[in-house]
Specification:
With about 290 residues, this protein is an alpha+beta fold. The protein folds into two domains: about 1-115 and about 260-285, Diaminopimelate Epimerase, Chain A, domain 1, CATH 3.10.310; about 135-255, Diaminopimelate Epimerase, Chain A, domain 1 (Roll). The chain has four helices and 19 strands. It has a 19-stranded mixed sheet that branches. Strand 7 and strand 8 form a beta hairpin. The protein is globular and about 45 Å long. The two termini are about 30 Å apart. Residues about 275-288 have low confidence and may be disordered.
């Protein structure tokens, strides 16, 4: 099986994008893990599959690099939206995901903005294992405690810390992701408040591990920081991939995320029937 693909990223949060609008593409978790392997496949934080939608311009399906399906992916949505915006020449598209309907726009400066909808703040919505105040959740690990939780279409826990550089996130991230308080696992954000309008954020992402950027995690960090009175409604979030995502929470609660997207290269995947290896054919550089 040979599949055309596009490798894209938003500030280093990287994706393999497959277009299944003309014909279905069905990859099982083993195949997804193989494509996601950074040594034997192409490598990605999420696999993004474009599918037709009866009530929108596009349906997007997301899979993590461990083969599990994700309900939402902010940067992946922006990357997919940028392709449809370019195809149609329009400045606005409607996108359906497993987490609901989203709207995306191309801004005058060329960046892509997606309306991630309002956060869900109830303990069942995150979800958490039992009833509790989602603003102060007793998650803890070495160097962090007192998380704030919400759902941005997927579960997020945010820790606010004095010094991000003092944390060994690779060591503490997996345990927090799989904490019993998070029955569907969690995206774990570590945020340092630099000012009322600037956060620095690192995310241990559910099913993907340490990422260079996480769009829904940036949204969750700003939502949770606002709930604690730490930042304003519009905030820049600096991520390890370099640069900022701009997050704004409107009066109606909707969270808008904007930032750059880029295409790294395009090519074809050849997935052998016995799957001992995966070959990327015809990979070509493409303009960002």
């Amino acid at each position: 099986m040979r599949l055309p693909f596009r490798k894209m990223h938003g500030l280093g949060n990287d994706f393999v994008v497959l277009d299944a609008r003309a014909a279905p593409i069905a990859l099982d978790p083993d195949a997804i893990r193989l494509v996601g392997d950074r040594h034997r496949g192409v490598g990605f934080d999420q696999l993004v599959t474009l599918e037709p939608a009866a009530d929108a311009d596009l349906f997007i399906r997301f899979h993590n690099s461990d083969g599990s399906e994700a309900g939402a992916c902010g940067n992946g949505t922006r990357c997919a939206a940028s392709l449809v915006l370019a195809e149609t020449g329009r400045t606005h598209v409607a996108i359906r995901t497993a987490a609901g309907m989203l709207a995306a726009d191309r801004l005058p400066d060329g960046t892509v903005r997606v309306d991630m909808g309002p956060p869900k703040l109830g303990w069942r919505d995150v979800p958490l294992a039992r009833e509790m105040d989602t603003l102060h959740v007793p998650l803890s690990a070495e160097g962090v405690s007192d998380a704030a939780c919400c759902s941005m279409g997927n579960p997020h826990a945010t820790f606010f810390v004095e010094n991000l550089d003092a944390l060994d996130i690779r060591r503490i991230g997996p345990g927090l992701e799989h904490d019993p308080l998070l029955p569907e696992r969690g995206n774990i954000g570590f945020a340092q408040v630099l000012s009322r309008t600037q956060l620095r954020l690192v995310v241990w992402e559910r099913g993907a591990g340490l990422t260079l950027a996480c769009g829904s995690g940036a949204c969750a960090a700003v939502v949770n920081a606002r709930r604690r009175g730490l930042v304003e409604a519009r905030c820049a979030v600096t991520v390890p991939g370099g640069g900022d995502l701009v997050i704004e929470q409107r009066e109606d609660g909707h969270v808008l995320m904007s930032g750059p997207v880029a295409t790294s290269f395009t090519g074809e995947l050849e997935l052998p029937s016995d799957r001992p290896a995966l070959v990327a054919w015809g990979a070509m550089g493409a303009a960002a």
